[in-house]
Structure formats: C-alpha cells, structure tokens
Design a protein that fits this description.
The structure is a homodimer of 196-residue chains. With 196 residues, chain A is α+β, with helices and mostly antiparallel strands. Chain A contains 8 helices and 5 strands. Chain A has a 4-stranded antiparallel sheet with strand order 1-2-4-3, sandwiched between helices. At the A-B interface, helix 1, helix 2, strand 1, helix 6 and strand 3 of A face helix 1, helix 2, strand 1, helix 3 and helix 6 of B.
C-alpha cells in the first residue's frame, strides 16, 4: 500500500492545473512519464495510445485554431500540450508486443474487424491517457486535461494520413497555484457503485 | 515525485493477475478504492464511470454466460469481478457536481446531443476505469482487466433498463504469483510519441 503522501500526490491533493510556472518540461521528463505509463495494462497488450507533445511555439500555433475559446489562452501558455491519440493500425505491432499468439493480429485486421479495431483503439488509448495523467503526477508534473477542442481540426493538421486519431488534450507543466480552482463535488459510493 | 517503491507498485512491477489467493476483498477495500479514483479528473467533472462489484456466488453465476471461454475459469474464481460501466444519463448529476455552470446539463441533454453524451460517457468512464486499476494497486490489490466478454449479455443481465452500459471487466483480489505471466514487450518512445 502506498503511503498517504503518495496517495495525496496521485489522487487526493492533485488538482487540474489551469496555469503553469515557467519551469520547462524537458525531453527527459517526457521519456520518464512514457516509461511508466507504457507498463500499465491494455487489451492484448495492444498499446494503441499515442502521445504528441506540442511544445515549440510553431507547433502550438498549429494547434491554436482547434482550441475552444475557453481553453485557448491557458493552452497556448502551457509549457507542453499533449495530444493524446490512438493508432488506428495498432494491430500491426501485435507480432512484436503479443508474440505468443501469432493469430492476434487477425482479431483486428480487415474491413470486417473495423468496429472491433476502432473500439479497442479508443478504449485502450483512453486507458493509456489516464495512465499518462497519473504517471505525470507521479513524477511531479501537473496536468490540465481537456476535451474542449475540435478533434477534426487537430486530426487534419497533425494526422493528415488518418493513421493516428486525436482523443483528448492535456496541458502539462508545473502548476502555478494561482490557476487552481476549488475542487468540485464528487459522487458518493452509492451513486456510482453496487456490490452484488 | 513518488519514491521508487511506489512507482514499482503502480507501474513497473505490477502485473495483470490471472489467479488470486483466498484473501477476500472487503466492502472497506472497495470504498477505499472508490474514494481515491473519484478524485481524478473527468470532463466537466462528469464522473460517468460506474462500478458493479460482482462478489457473491449468485452474482458470479449471472455473469458467467457472458464470459469468453478463455476468461471463464479465472473470473469465476476471482474474489471480485468489477463491471466497469458508464451512466448514459450522467448529465443528470451535473447540477450537483458542476454547480458553478447551471447550463452544463444542456451540453448533453436531448436527442441532438446524443453523440456528445455517448462519447463523453465512454471516454470518461474509461478514464475512470484506468484510475480504478491504479487506485486498486495503490491500496495493495491486484487487477486482471479484460475485454473478452459479451457486452450485450452483461447489459441485458445487469442493466436491463439501459441506463448503465458495460465497458470492461476487472478481476480483483490479492494475486497468487503462480498466475502471473511474464511481461510482454512494450513499445518504445519513438513508436508511440512525437515531440514537436
């Protein structure tokens, strides 16, 4: 069991960050987060999640037109904005990442398997997006995840070949507490859970 | 930053559990996991994730016909199997959980907002499923997540009114190391990431 301080960092005291200090997010930081998140489970070890780290001013400019008005200023100011995406042809890696079952690629290949492929990419890419958030917190970074943007515009600008598809965005850096809002109420166990 | 032992528990040394000891999973364990996972972020604090803890023999029997052959024996033997689900009418809670914007419920209400409602429920319910896995590990439990089952059969049996919808399953307990398989290869940073 993790100690109280670790549970606070991951869950209890962590907050969505809306403003960040000028401390940069380094390549080493990004590698460290990925090296953790990639160990967490996905269906058939499929690992469809993809992560585009938008850090340079030029890349931020490409992202700007896709942002909703309420998310624009804080996103342009964040040290990094992560496009959490998924690979619609993730199954091509299965011979390497699920080597004990050479038939696994067939579960997802071809037009007849499109629905299975799409839901697997979205579900497991999303799981990996959540792992990303908690891995970033675990190494001392703060996150501001967002769905408020135009996925079609991001896909057209960053993924014109259609292989990767955007899911959600995460602003990433070291939080400036001035941008942290009070926590909203959470549902109670009985609202969301049943024990049968 | 979390210490090395905590990173091992969450990511580096954790494995999918395929067999469990006889140590039970208590109501207190389930509340503890939920109290952590509910603090992690969802879009507009929507919290659509729902968790049905299938623990009694009678409830396990109801689940059995929906399981794929390869997952049946280990699931029937697990102390608890969690149905990770999402609430298709999650927006009805928004006046309580997103109180500063009384208009938020309108982002998701009515037939014209069905697509937005469905993708928000699925995306954020899945994020909360990932938070569940890491919160369970954080309190000393082990997880065996699975997509190999018939969602339609689970929904018909457990959610006949259609309000909640199944997403994936997680076997939960204390791992018997005899059921742990060697770790499969993970993708490299350059396979899955870009820095722009």
């Amino acid at each position: 069991m993790l100690d109280a301080a670790a549970l606070d960092v991951l869950f209890r005291e962590a907050h969505t960050a809306n403003a960040f200090t000028t401390q940069p997010v380094t390549d080493a930081d990004l590698h460290q987060v990925f090296d953790l998140l990639r160990m967490a489970p996905t269906s058939a070890n499929s690992q469809p999640g993809r992560f585009v780290f938008v850090r340079s001013a030029a890349a931020k400019k490409r992202l700007e037109p896709a942002l909703s008005a309420g998310n624009r200023a804080k996103t342009m100011a964040a040290p990094v904005t992560v496009i959490v995406a998924h690979d619609m042809r993730f199954h091509e890696f299965l011979p390497r990442v699920f080597p004990h079952d050479p038939g696994a690629v067939g579960w997802f290949e071809g037009e007849a398997k499109r629905a299975s492929r799409e839901i697997t990419a979205f579900r497991n890419g999303t799981l990996q997006g959540a792992y990303f958030i908690l891995a970033a917190r675990a190494v001392g970074l703060d996150c501001g995840p967002m769905s408020g943007f135009d996925n079609g515009k991001v896909d057209a600008e960053f993924f014109p070949d259609g292989r990767w598809r955007s899911n959600f965005l995460v602003n990433l850096g070291h939080a400036d507490p001035a941008g942290t809002m009070p926590r909203n109420p959470r549902l109670a166990f009985d609202d969301a859970c049943r024990i049968l």
